[in-house]
Structure formats: C-alpha cells, structure tokens
Amino acid sequence: MARRLGETRQFAGIIGRDKKMLEIFDLIASLARSHAPVLIQGESGVGKELVAAAIHNEGPRAGRLFVPVNCGALPEGLLESELFGHVRGAFTGAIRDKKGRFELADGGTIFLDEIGDVSPAMQVKLLRVLQEGTFERVGSNLTLKVDARVISATNKDLREEIRAGRFREDLFYRLCVAPVHLPPLRERRGDIPLLIDHLLPRVAREAGRDGLAVSPAALDRMMDYDWPGNVRELHNALQFALVKCHGATIELSHLPPTIAQTRPATTLRARAPGKHAPTQTRRVRTRRVKLDVAGVRAALARARGRRVLAARALGVSRATFYRFLDAHAELKEVS
User: Fold this and answer.
1) Other C-beta atoms within 10 Å of 101: how many?
2) What separation in angstroms does the CA of 252 have from each of 120, 167, 219?
3) What angle do CA 56, 332, 8 make, to 5 degrees?
4) Same-domain pairing of 254 and 159
5) What pTM, to 2 d.p., does this model score?
6) Consecutive sets of 10 residues in the chain, 335 residues long: mean pLDDT of each?
7) Which candidate in 111, 194, 197, 253 could, as Cys together with 52 as Cys, close a disulfide (CB 3.0–4.6 Å)?
8) Phi, psi torsion values for 80, nearest 5 degrees
9) Residue 69 shares a structural domain with residue 163
C-alpha cells in the first residue's frame, strides 16, 4: 500500500508524499476495484479530474473510454444534447444523429465535472440515468441503456446547496456513494517542492529551456504562500517566472507579484516603545543551524510528526527542513 511505502512521490500521475495524499492514493486503489459512483470534492485547481482519471485507469474499465464533461461550461440545452445525444431534426442545426457522452462512455467511465452547477431540470434527468441506466436522445422516444461508471466532482458544498434548495438530495446520495475529499495545497505544503520538481521541467521544455532551478529565497516564499488556486496556480506561477527569468535560476523577483509580495512567515510586526509609537516591520534573520538526523528525529517526535512545528523548533525554514527530509530516507517514517 502507498502509505506503507513511505517514499511514494507519485501514484497514477498524481504527485504527493503528504499523509493526506498517501491516504488518497490508497483510496484510489480501493475505488478502482469498485463500480460505485464517486463524488470528488475540493477547491478549484486541486486535481479532481486527475483523481477521476486515476480511478478509471487503475480499474477494470481502463480499456474503455474515460469521458469528461464540464457541466458548468455549457447552457442547459446544449448540456442535454452533449450528455444524451440527439437525433437528426431534433433542433435547428441537428443535421445528423449524434451519440451523447453517456453512450460514448458505455463500458467505461463518465466524469461529470462541476456537477454542482447543473440545473434542477437536468438533475432530474441525471437521477434517472443513475437509477435505471436508461435515457433517450434529444428528439427521440427510443430508450437506450448504458453501463457507464459515474464519477462526479464539484468545488461547492453540495449539502449547503441542498439546504438552499439548489441541489436534489436524492441525486446527491446517488452520486456520493463513495466520497473523496482532496486537500488544498496549503494543507500539504510539504508537497510543494515535489510539485515544483515535477512541473518545472515540463514548463521549461514547453518554453524550449532546460536545467532550471528555484532559488532558496523563491522556494521559501512559495512555501509561505497559501495558493488559493492550488496546483493550477503553482503551475501558472512557474510559467510566469520563466517569462521573467533569463538565467538558470528562478529568483524571488521572478515570481508573480501576488506571491513575491506575500509577507513571509519570518516577518514580525514589532511595536516601538511608547504608547503611540508607529508600527514597524522588521525581518527576523533565521539563525544558521546545522541539521543532523538525530536532532531532526527528536524534533519530529516532540512535535508528534508535525513538520512545520519541528522546523520552527529547530529554527530553520520549512523549505530547508523539507529538503533535509528529502535527503534522508530514514526520517520519512517519522514524518
């Protein structure tokens, strides 16, 4: 199992070594052997489609099609035709019969992204497919039957949508037989260096460059940033950095302003003596500490495996601490 290995960095194309991601890897492997509908929940940019594809590719349906549909990108009329197909003459412009995504996914998997954006009328039609596996093409009375596994995803809280009357409760329970929650990048900061190592060579190749590295200062700032856009924003930040970087090393000044101007965790606001003295910002210099395996192991034990607290106790930046962990495999079981 992925968690037992402890050194897992990639599973089915997904990058991560954080405990939360290792649990996701194990869950993907279990779900791949099942045919139950899966609902993947998480913020925008966390990689929901990657997880859906991994569940498909690791299972018995891998030899058939994985068919993604962005339910939030199409108006209701077009979405119905896209999902269920149509017959010739069903509407203006329907010059021939067309299979829908459910038909194309027969024997495979259909991925309904942004399912929380589907209209109430379309929710009723989806409920029927999930219950009975049957539907009609637009403009046809012929009932078709399909065997398609349904994986859906949303960045909305569907229980809140149910309470607000915008999402059907019966459809929710049909979709959410097996829930998967993907953590945002800010909750697995230790994976940021791994993701950079994975993404930077790809971004560099696309730009016709190679041999690029990220400076310690830039990495520290990227570790401090909260990444509201998650992995997608990290990818975009590296693309931006390459536009500004003309050398072999991405520096702090090359990062997007929203990241470069983020106040680092080591910046403290100190009030000067006096009741009405102005607030001043001062940078506390991180003292140079030579890390050793025994000391890091002890710090992790005291912090009960919480790496951020261990790094803080040792007086080093998170980036330095994570690089040390990467270089010492014997510490992975502790962290």
Assistant:
1) 20
2) 47, 44, 8
3) 20
4) no
5) 0.79
6) 52 90 96 97 97 97 97 89 90 88 97 97 95 94 96 97 97 98 94 93 93 91 94 97 95 96 53 36 43 81 77 79 82 68
7) 111
8) -60, -45
9) yes
